[in-house]
Specification:
heterodimer; A: mainly alpha; 0% strand; elongated; B: mainly alpha; 13 helices; 74% helix; globular
């Protein structure tokens, strides 16, 4: 055991040496704190209009300028972070739960159960995920809940494949065989013995899922199918900014830029975490 | 090989059927119908219209009728564009989307492969760092930001290309670049990873030790053998181009199929949504199949009979 915990420490030290990953971690932590404490770090609310101050370029009163209704862009981006990060996190968790359950059951049970679950997974893989999300949102509504459920229902298949593969490997391990030989119930073997050993790859895939969901949400909101005004996410801000882009490029460059930096940070953090927690894992593309 | 091809074709049909069924029932379960727009219709008129389009029939019969028509190449007429057959709308918009997608695909391969190869050949140097920064940025940047920056720089500051619309040959440039950005990054990252793996292979060491020049090893031995995994990426890339085209066509006001899909969904134009989804699914299923076949053809070690 000492040996394995030594390895963990070595992995953690290697992670700390990956400067990009550490900086990314702090960037994400900073953005998240800003989002959580939005009312304390902004001077305006997301929907406070001031027509006499519309379409201003950045200044000391409005750090990132104002939009066509005189709303403060900086405040809207901070409040937008709440929405975008919330959707990213909850969608990833939702997909994680469904994907882990189905993947673990498919991998552990094998046989026809595995076959049926994997055919369903294949079906979802063939369906372009955003197309499916758009259709699902007709049913689930365009609020935060609708988006989280719709994106989650398209994203779980990635998780299911990952967990199934890992469980298939784990099933052949001696400790699982021992547990089964002692007559431990299937559910207990899966949840108490197998899954706790897979937390590394699962955390890594969670870090990869969050940004892809934030991106999908911003995509949907940008084309007008996601979060509806007056609420704002980074995608809705970009949509409003895009219409005014020719004269006021700051309206799209700021929200788009913040999303870009956040995605970049999640990608670097994910790479770093994979080196630490899941060294044999597949390289991302 | 032939039996495999036939079997794959056989398995594609139930897959397409299930996809169509899923879309059909999802659409119908959703609240709102095609004819409850802003104007409130008198109930008799609405009932008449619904009868005309067969919307009064039980839903499984409607689906059966749709499948029966689809098999014969009849995708019904659109609700939005009265009296225009869905097949006609698709025939008018699909070529635009395919042209755009092909241009983007070519660009992403022509830039992505050299970028990844340069990074791998000079691993851990500044070339590698810059190339990988470009690639990681490419998968991190939202495509509307790419579109905006391209338009601001190459259409407004330097008016080289039209900022939108689909009127002249150069109209394709900015949308295709926007669409290509992400696949380009994916290809570059995979090329690099795949080449680094091949560098460790025995035949590369042999080539080095018998004195083959570095450049020749990289191009003839490593790059050539590293391109095989990239073929498998074509499936996800085609999917990416398809959904990416929604946004790009929306942003650049291009009369392609993606733009229609979004409007058709919002207007509950059932036949048009069904038709466009079916075309997308066929393209995806076909490209996945093509990838598997090409993969088996270039690398005989891969057993298809799993």
């Amino acid at each position: 055991m000492g040996n394995s915990s030594d390895q963990k420490w070595r992995g953690f030290r290697r992670f700390l040496k990956n400067r990009l990953a550490v900086v990314s971690f702090f960037f994400i932590a900073w953005i998240s704190l800003m989002a959580v404490f939005a009312p304390m770090v902004t001077h305006y609310t997301y929907d406070e209009q001031n027509i006499s101050e519309r379409l201003q370029t950045p200044s000391t009163t409005h750090w990132l300028g104002t939009d066509h209704l005189g709303r403060d862009v900086y405040s809207r981006i901070v409040y937008g972070a709440q929405m975008s990060l919330e959707v990213g996190l909850f969608t990833a968790l939702f997909a994680l739960i469904i994907g882990t359950l189905t993947g673990a059951i498919a991998g552990y049970k094998g046989g026809w159960v595995d076959h049926v679950i994997m055919r369903i997974v294949d079906l979802f893989y063939t369906f372009p995920s955003l197309l499916l999300a758009i259709l699902l949102m007709l049913l689930l509504g365009r609020g935060v809940t609708g988006i989280v459920l719709a994106l989650g229902l398209t994203a779980w298949v990635v998780q299911a494949r990952l967990v199934r593969g890992q469980v298939l490997q784990a099933r052949e391990m001696a400790y699982v065989e021992a547990a089964r030989a002692m007559g431990v119930r299937d559910a207990v073997v899966i949840f108490r013995h197998i899954l706790p050993n897979l937390w590394g790859p699962i955390i890594v895939s969670l870090t990869m899922q969050i940004p892809s969901n934030i991106m999908s949400e911003s995509f949907l909101s940008f084309i007008g199918l996601g979060i509806q005004p007056p609420y704002s996410s980074w995608g809705t801000l970009a949509n409003e900014g895009f219409r005014a882009m020719r004269s006021y490029p700051h309206l799209i460059i700021f929200p788009g830029g913040v999303l870009f930096l956040t995605m970049l940070a999640f990608n670097y953090l994910g790479d770093g975490l994979r080196d630490w927690l899941d060294p044999q894992g597949e390289r991302g593309i | 090989m032939l039996t495999y091809t036939i079997r794959r074709l056989g398995s594609a049909i139930p897959l397409l059927f299930l996809l169509a069924a899923m879309t059909f029932f999802l659409l119908r379960l959703a609240p709102g119908g095609p004819f409850d727009g802003d104007r409130a219709w008198p109930p008799e008129v609405k009932a008449n219209i619904e009868r005309q389009y067969g919307l009064d029939l039980p839903i499984h019969i409607q689906f059966g009728k749709w499948v029966y028509g689809a098999v014969q190449g009849d995708l019904k007429t659109s609700f939005q564009f009265v009296d225009r057959p869905v097949t006609e709308i698709i025939a008018g918009t699909l070529p635009v989307s395919i042209y755009l997608g092909t241009a983007a695909l070519l660009f992403s391969i022509l830039v992505g492969v050299p970028l990844g190869a340069a990074a791998a050949a000079r691993q851990n140097t500044w070339i590698d760092n810059v190339a990988m920064f470009i690639a990681t940025s490419g998968i991190s940047i939202p495509s509307y930001l790419v579109a905006s920056l391209l338009v601001i720089v190459f259409a407004l500051w330097m008016p080289w290309f039209p900022p939108a619309l689909w009127e002249e040959p150069s109209s394709v440039v900015l949308p295709a670049l926007t669409l290509a950005w992400r696949p380009m990054a994916m290809i570059a990252r995979l090329t690099r990873a795949s080449m680094l793996e091949t560098f460790r292979a025995d035949f590369v060491r042999t080539a080095h030790s018998k004195g083959v020049p570095e450049a020749q090893v990289i191009f003839k031995h490593v790059l050539k053998n590293s391109l095989i995994p990239i073929i498998t990426l074509m499936g996800p890339i085609v999917a990416n181009l398809l959904t990416g085209s929604f946004l790009v066509e929306f942003v650049f006001e291009i009369p392609g199929m993606g733009k229609h899909f979004v409007h058709a969904v919002l207007n509950r134009d059932y036949p048009l949504v069904m038709g466009v989804t079916l075309v997308y699914a066929v393209i995806l299923v076909a490209s996945n199949m093509f990838v598997d076949l090409v993969y088996a053809w270039v690398d005989p070690r891969i057993r298809l009979e799993r």
